[in-house]
Structures are given as C-alpha cells and as structure tokens.
TrEMBL record:
Ranges of residues in domain RsdA/BaiN/AoA(So)-like insert: 224-375
Domain RsdA/BaiN/AoA(So)-like Rossmann fold-like: 9-134, 161-424
Name listed for the protein in its UniProt record: NAD(FAD)-utilizing dehydrogenase
Superkingdom in the source lineage: Bacteria
Entry-linked SUPFAM superfamilies: FAD/NAD(P)-binding domain, HI0933 insert domain-like
Keywords assigned: FAD, Flavoprotein
C-alpha cells in the first residue's frame, strides 16, 4: 500500500489572479499552489499594458458574458473598494471607463499577491505541469487503497462504496493530482484556477477543462475573446489603413432568452477607439464587440458624433469636412469607387455609399485567434456549480476565474471576477 507524505487542506492549480487571491485569503489551512510556468502571475504582469487594471468602479453583471444569475451571485461578495483595500499599500489611478490602474505597475500588484499568499502559509510550486486529477481513498495513516472510485458525482459511487465502507475503515476521500513528471500531490479540497487558452506564450493550458470533463462536468467550447477581427474580401481595404486609429461605435447582435425561453437577438453598442491593422480591425471597441459576436454581421458607425447636414452645407472636400483621419476617408472613397469632392457634388447613388460611414455593415471572417486574444470565452459550465463554485455532487472540487464560462469586457472586469470568485470560495473554505 502506497503512503502519502502530506495531504494539503487546499490544493490550487494555477498561480494567477484567482489562485493567488484565494491563497491570500485562506486562514489556518495548509495550502499548495501548482503553477505550470517557471514563475507566477505571468498574465497579471501583462494586464493593462503592464499597469494592471485590477478593478472597475462600475462592476455589474451586464459587463459579462455568462449566466447573469451566477455572475451576480459571485460579484456581490466583492466590491471594487474591497479590491483597492486589499492592495492598500499600492496607489491606483482611476482612468478612462472607471478603470483602476496601478501607478507603479503590474509587478507590484503581483508582489502583493505573492506576499499575502505566502503570509497565509501557501507553498507555491512552479514548473509543475498538471496531467490529471482523480479522487482516491486513503486511510487515517495516509495509506492509499489500490482502488480508484468513479470520477463522477457521488451518486455514481454506489458500487465502490459497497466494496469499501469508509466509516468502518476510517477512510477519507481525497484528491490525487499527478504532474507530467510523475510527481503526485494530495489534498482534501482541489481548486482549479488554471485560466483559459489565451496567450500560449504566457502558459495557457486546457488542463482545467480536462479535469472538469473527467469529473463529468460539461465545458462550453472555448473561443478567443477580447480580440481583433479578420476580414473578408470586401473589407480588404481595411488592411491598407494599418495604424490608423480613431473613435467609433460598434453594434453587435447578442443572443438572449425571454421569459418563455425563446432565443432573441438584441443589439449591444460599444463606443471607443478602433484600430486598423494588417490583419483587419482591432482596438478597444472591437475587442469588446468580439466578446458578444457569434458570427454574422456587425455594424460600425465611423462618425458617431457627426451630422451629415454639416457636410451638406459645406463647400469643402469630403475628406476635409469629415471628422476622420484623411487617410481613412480617402481609402473609404477609393474602395467605394468614388473621388474626393464636396458632398453636394455627389449623385444620389454615390451619397448612398457615403452614408454607409454611419452604418457600415459587414461580417468578419473570424478573429485574430487565441494567440492575440486577451481572454477566453466558454469554459466550465456554471450550471454545474454551486454558489461557492463547487461542483454539484463532487465534494471538495471547485473551479474559479477564467476557466469558467464567464467572461468580462475590457476594463478590469476579468481580474475583478477572478478576485470575487476567490473571495467567495475563501469564505466557504475558511468556515470548514
């Protein structure tokens, strides 16, 4: 019979925002964190352009893609003021769209998380690539029975429990986590905070989805989010504008369900900068639109604060009167087969083309992919989780942060959600 040297109270997979914040808020527990990368918090260091926008004054479920009831339940546990208080030794500036950026940069945010996690007694093991996780039985002396219970929910353990009466033999169900190098870790509670698939260079991994599925929990297919759009042939002219950036408004149809569970398509609008690239179109407004885009058409208003009547009254050339970069206007006209002249000189069919500036409808070819996406949408289905992010019917198994099928918009929403999940779970585990 194999022997276990140590059984942790809590084992966390992933030393990112959710995992570190959880460890920092646990009290009186033996805690270990397993991190795939050689160092912790790589994605934290990259967030907010290296300035780490940790939260937002306007935290609300409407800023997230996911089950609204689940999101509201998580967010109610942590206010933006709570996050700022946690990082109280650092200074933050509230900037555009009510985001809070760290004055001294993301490195200091990560340093506080690591310090607080270690103060709580957490051990962090870096360079540990998790391969699998399962539930096993161990006796009171740490001996492992040479039998593995079913991976799924408690109701599926009937046959196993007929062979082993846990109470009679003083047996305990624990988690065994196996690393790719063969190392094994054991814990009473397993928390998966492994993140999504975005930015492979930062250590992205699908292990969280694999663990969920191995325990019978469904996973919504992951997809890139907060990412730029590639374009089809009709919009190839976008590529000629690489580097051009200006404010615009984007509308995208979003799926929702009404009281009788019928799927509806309701438009959402996103105002902000758009940026043309050699691959297509990006920028904050585009990234937010990508979160809710599910293939099909989007609409861009290139001149949201301009009235065409101003151009109608002007004798100046269109490229001069429009509040747009001249390079953009000229390329738009060229793509439409038009010359640059005063608006009043265009024919009726030509003005129809020009008015597309206020409602330019097109279908993106796709996105820039996971390598350029800031986050991943999709993930572990929240309808399989309890209010504390525990898996229904699997005692001691939890999923928190980006690994879940909940994704926030730009602006500190995703970091805040990771912290809120962790804070919620910390209350649960501290009460055990």
């Amino acid at each position: 019979m194999a022997k276990i040297c140590k059984i942790y109270d809590v084992l966390i997979i992933g030393a990112g925002a959710a995992g570190l914040f959880l460890a920092a808020n646990l009290r009186g527990k033996s805690v270990a964190i397993l991190e795939k990368n050689a160092t912790s918090g790589k994605k934290i260091l990259a967030s907010g352009g290296g300035r780490c926008n940790v939260t937002n004054r306007r935290i609300d479920a409407s800023n997230y893609l996911g089950d609204a009831g689940f999101v509201k339940n998580i967010l109610k546990n942590l206010d933006f003021k709570d996050v700022l208080k946690f990082f109280g030794e650092l200074k933050f500036n509230e900037q555009k769209q009510s985001q809070f950026f760290c004055e001294s940069g993301a490195k200091d945010v990560l340093s506080v998380l690591l310090k607080r996690a270690r103060q709580s007694g957490a051990q962090i093991f870096c360079g540990v690539c998790v391969k699998s996780a399962r539930k096993i039985l161990a006796d009171e002396n740490g001996g492992i029975l040479d039998v593995s219970p079913a991976q799924n929910r408690d109701e599926n353990l009937t046959d196993f429990e007929m062979k082993f009466d846990q109470n009679e033999q003083n047996l305990n169900e624990i988690f065994e986590v196996v690393a790719e190098n063969g190392d094994k870790f054991y814990a009473k509670n397993l928390v998966v905070a492994s993140g999504g698939l975005s930015y492979k260079s930062l250590g992205a991994s699908d292990i969280g989805y694999k663990i969920a599925q191995s325990f019978g929990t469904s996973v919504t297919t992951p997809a890139p989010a907060l990412v730029g759009f590639t374009v089809q042939k009709d919009e190839f002219w976008f590529k000629n504008l690489s580097g051009v950036c200006f404010p615009a408004e984007i509308s995208v149809a979003c799926s929702s369900k009404n009281a009788v569970n019928r799927e509806l398509k309701t438009p959402r609008k996103f105002a902000g900068d758009i940026l043309f690239t050699h691959k297509g179109i990006s920028g904050p407004a585009v990234l937010n639109a990508s979160l809710f885009w599910q293939k099909g058409l989007i609409t861009i208003n290139f001149c949201p604060n301009f009235s065409i009547e101003t151009a109608q009254k002007s004798k100046k050339q269109l490229s001069t009167v429009l509040p747009l970069p001249r390079r953009f206007t000229l390329e738009f006209l060229r793509a439409a087969g038009l010359s640059d002249k005063p608006y009043g000189e265009y024919k009726a069919d030509e003005t129809t083309k020009i008015l597309r500036l206020f409602a330019y409808e097109f279908a993106p070819a796709g996105t820039f992919g996971f390598e350029r996406a800031e986050v991943t949408k999709g993930g572990v289905d929240t309808d399989a989780l309890e209010a504390d992010c525990g898996v229904n019917g699997v005692r001691g198994l939890y999923f928190i942060g980006e690994v879940l099928n909940v994704t926030g918009m730009l602006g500190g929403y995703n970091l805040h959600f990771a912290f809120a999940c962790a804070a919620n779970l910390a209350k649960r585990l501290n009460a055990k």
